[in-house]
Amino acid sequence: MRSQVINLTVNGTERELLAKPGTTLLGALRDGLGLTAAKRGCAQGGCGACTVVVNGAAVPSCLIPVEVADGATVETLEGMASGQHLTPLQQAFVDGFATQCGFCTSGMLMSASALLAENPAPTRDEVAVAISGNVCRCTGYAAIIDAILDAADRTRAVGSAAAD
Amino acid sequence: MLRQVLLPADVGAAVSTLAGDPTAVLVAGGTLVMPAVNTTVTPIETLVSTRDLGLAGVAVERGIARVGAATTLTALGNHPDLGFLRPTVASFASPIIRNLATVGGNLFASQPYGDLAVALLALDATAEIAGPDGPREAPVSEVLEQRVRPGEIVAAVRFALPAAGTWRWTKAMRRRLNSAAIVAVAAVVETDGGVVSAARIALGGAGSRPVRARAVEAALLGKPLDEASVTAAASLALSEAEPFSDAYASAWYRGRVLPVHIRRALLGA
Amino acid sequence: MATTKHMSPIDTGYFSDERAAAFDVVGTPAPRSDARGHVTGQTQYFEDVAYPGMAHLKMHRSARHHALVKGVDTSAAETTPGVLRVITHRDVPNNWYTILRLIGVQPDDEPVLAEDRVLYLGEPIVAVVAETEAIAREAAAKVRVDYEDLPAVLDVEEALKPETIVVNPKHGHNYFTYEGHHCRRIRFGDVERGFAEAPHRFTHTYQSAPIEHAPVEPTGCVVKPEADVRLKIHSDTQACYFTLDNTALILGVPFNRLRVIGGTVGGGFGGKVDVMVEPIACIAAQLTNRPVKYVYERAEEMQVSSPRAAERITIDDGVTDDGRIIARKVTILVDAGAYSRHSPYGTTKAAAHMPGPYTIPNVWVDAHCVYTNRTPSSAMRGFGVTIADFALESQMDRIARALDIDPIVIRLRNAYRDGDMKAHRKEVEGAALVEVMQKAADLVGHDLPADCRAMSSTHREAR
């Protein structure tokens, strides 16, 4: 059983790690690179807690053998804020009480950021669809959807202020 | 236990690996294979990835769509020439799963998963298959029934675009979003002079694999597409269906609602 | 700070004479102290801890609902390359416990690892510690258990029949014993006299199914042997001291030999107050002198983590023409599953919750904590009360419908008020129920008659 050298661009930085067969992208991020924001909730793609953005698409990282991700560009929650400065999406989650236990939050934010990158002015229903693969068991969906809509508003407000 | 993950550069190499190693399994999006690898004791020792096989992509020419097997459900649903499928694909799983799950992999999902297979059955799609004995073609219905032979890979599916307004899709779910089918109904229904001239109806949640509702189709031919004839025809679905019980619904419930959803698929109400 | 758009102001108009003027926190948003950690991915859950050389534990579980264990063959697991240790009940210093022994609940009715019998599907029998999760999983699957099947008791009423096989020999019968009684009992007034005086009688039975919490973070822990021989336990338990004390008692070590690091729980809802993973992970860490991780697979979380108990509740009411309940007789059957866990306590809660938030002069309650061969049930969000409320409020609606009385009016007529004596002899204080219902009626535009409008929780109107 030979380990393999895997190269990933994670949050803008090229990273290299050694992975045994059977290592998922989630395992590589968490155990190989120490990036533990993505969570293991079910290891079968059912909960979305491990969602990261791979080559621009939000995906459950537990379903990807890391060898298949070799060479990919990966964004995780660790790369979202710049230093202490939260993004409007993160700030909207804080202000809108869109976190409870916090375990789904990382995946929710990654699904939301992929949505907003593609669709900066989503409808409420589009937001609900975007996070429909992310399970929250504290029943906080309403606050999460509100926060994502709020983030879209804040981002647009910043954008239009900059344009003035 | 998994011992290696291979990324062959072409279909020939993938086929020869799969043909020569009974513990090898093809993995595309990973949504079916990886849950087993991650959480159970499996005989799988080798994963053969479709990543570099060049099997992704959609081409529509002269009314025929050819969809590469490694095309993701997201790409399928977004394709501008396949607009009729967009709402259908939107009812499958969730965006994060659709970003991984592939068209080819869907043919190997066990019910009640594999909504696209139900749709492809109603579209009378053909599978293009690569294998140790060379390429062959088979109706999707045959692939669903007999799967593929050792070493074979579904490379693409092909289907004729249904005429405008003839595509029907209904999926009954426990939740509005991201839930497996209680029952799914896919159909292409053509009318001529106010009566049904051709009908292909496929059902999910009605057996161990997606099935055609032949009796319903036959009963509709020559009849107007109205409440009375559709209700009468839909009631025949139970004679062919073998609904099953699982965490989503009981066999009784599936059987009870199947004719209702056939009616809703065909009439929209 | 920004306030959220959907947060309406708190109505402070009620009970203003009971409100100290300086109390202004309620109604004022304050940011969550943990939110920043959550949105940056910096919050540390137990599984975010990794140690070099960490080993992994997987469990071989019962494939039967109820059986004698005639033999266990661990040889194939032991010889699997990468396996560090196979653990059976013989490796557990004090194998028998019950979580609430900490507050005097007895007997110790549950083994950490099964000995001569298994009482539910998925009961832990043999633990395997290995270099990787995959090896541990594969080796655990190689354990062979020789079973002799016993009849499985899967229904609470069947369990209570005298001829039914005893599920849990530590109890000797299929119910928990409350101070010498076969159930938790409440006797208040004289229900038979109440029934005799009542023109209407309503008897209905309500049944719930077990409910799984399904936290997104599975139950688990990481245990690290420290240089000072202490064991450091990173856990997602909801109850650090339940875990610490029970684990120490099972290991037979002083409490100060364990250090529990917890408090960050990725969803619990009551499902993480049982002490299931830490004791065996500690034993594994001791035996291998390695950091050990033991975390449930999703399937284990669904199958063996304790659900909310299924309950069967029969309510027998004597009611006047104007909808006043003057006698309420309730029988509660709580399906504890194979072991006590928190169910003896939950059953007491169910009894104490009767007859609901209503003042009824004659109340009789028998609440049985029943053992069956189902997955042991335990705590979940208001356990004992939630299903009781489903039964009680369904019953109120049925009575209202049968007597053609407005469902809010019937509740107001029966509502408890400050100063009333409840069935378990606790005087009602701070009820506020009448005002809440009046306000709820306003919010949905539901007209109430003048006598209901005039009601108050703080004083009872003349009739």
Give me a quick take on this structure:
The complex is a heterotrimer of chains A (164), B (269) and C (463). Chain B is 32% helix and 25% strand.
Total DSSP helices of chain A? 5
Task: Please identify the oligomeric state.
Answer: heterotrimer
Rounded to an integer in angstroms, the radius of gyration calculated over CA atoms of chain A is 16 Å
Q: What are the segments of chain A in which pLDDT stays under 50 over at least 5 consecutive residues? A: none
Strand order of the largest sheet of chain A: 2-1-5-3-4
Estimated radius of gyration of chain C? 26 Å
Instruction: Give start-end ranges of low-pLDDT stretches of chain C.
Output: 1-5
Biggest interface, chains and residues, is: A-C, 47 and 40 residues
Rounded to the nearest angstrom, the distance between the terminal CA atoms of chain C is 51 Å
- Could you spell the SSE succession of chain A in H and E letters? EEHEEEHHHH
Explain the overall architecture:
The complex is a heterotrimer of chains A (164), B (269) and C (463). Chain A has 164 residues and is α+β, with helices and mostly antiparallel strands. Helices cover 37% and strands 15% of the residues of chain A. Chain A has a five-stranded mixed beta sheet with strand order 2-1-5-3-4, sandwiched between helices. With 269 residues, chain B is α+β, with helices and mostly antiparallel strands. A five-stranded antiparallel beta sheet of chain B has the order 4-5-8-6-7. Chain C is built from 13 helices and 17 strands. In chain C, the strands form four sheets. Chain C has a seven-stranded mixed beta sheet. Chain C has a five-stranded mixed beta sheet with strand order 9-17-16-15-10, sandwiched between helices. The model of chain C is unreliable at 1-5 (pLDDT under 50). Classes of the chains: A alpha+beta (164), B alpha+beta (269), C alpha+beta (463). Chains A and C meet through α2, α3 and α5 of A and α1 of C.
Characteristics:
heterotrimer; A: alpha+beta; 5-stranded mixed sheet; globular; C: about 475 residues; alpha+beta; 7-stranded mixed sheet; 17 strands
Secondary-structure blueprint:
The complex is a heterotrimer of chains A (164), B (269) and C (463).
Chain A (H helix, E strand, L loop, with lengths): L3 E7 L2 E7 L5 H8 L18 E4 L2 E4 L12 E3 L12 H8 L9 H14 L5 H7 L10 H23 L1
Parallel strand pairs in A: 1-5
Antiparallel strand pairs in A: 1-2, 3-4, 3-5
Helix pairs in contact in A: 2-5
Chain B lengths: L3 E3 L4 H10 L3 E4 L5 H7 L6 E4 L8 E4 L2 E5 L4 H6 L7 H5 L4 H4 L4 H4 L8 H8 L3 E5 L5 E4 H7 L6 E8 L6 E7 L7 E12 L2 E10 L6 E2 L1 H7 L6 H8 L2 H4 L10 H17 L2
Parallel strand pairs in B: 1-3, 2-3
Antiparallel strand pairs in B: 4-5, 5-8, 6-7, 6-8, 9-10, 10-11, 11-12
Chain C lengths: L34 H6 L14 E7 L5 E7 L1 H4 L4 E5 L8 E2 L12 E2 L5 E2 L5 E7 L2 H9 L2 E6 L6 H5 L23 E5 L2 H7 L2 E8 L12 E6 L5 E5 L4 H12 L6 E4 L16 H11 L3 E4 L2 H6 L7 E9 L5 E13 L5 H11 L9 E9 L14 H18 L3 H8 L18 H11 L6 H4 L10
Parallel strand pairs in C: 1-14, 12-13, 16-17
Antiparallel strand pairs in C: 1-7, 2-6, 2-8, 3-7, 4-5, 9-17, 10-15, 11-12, 11-14, 15-16
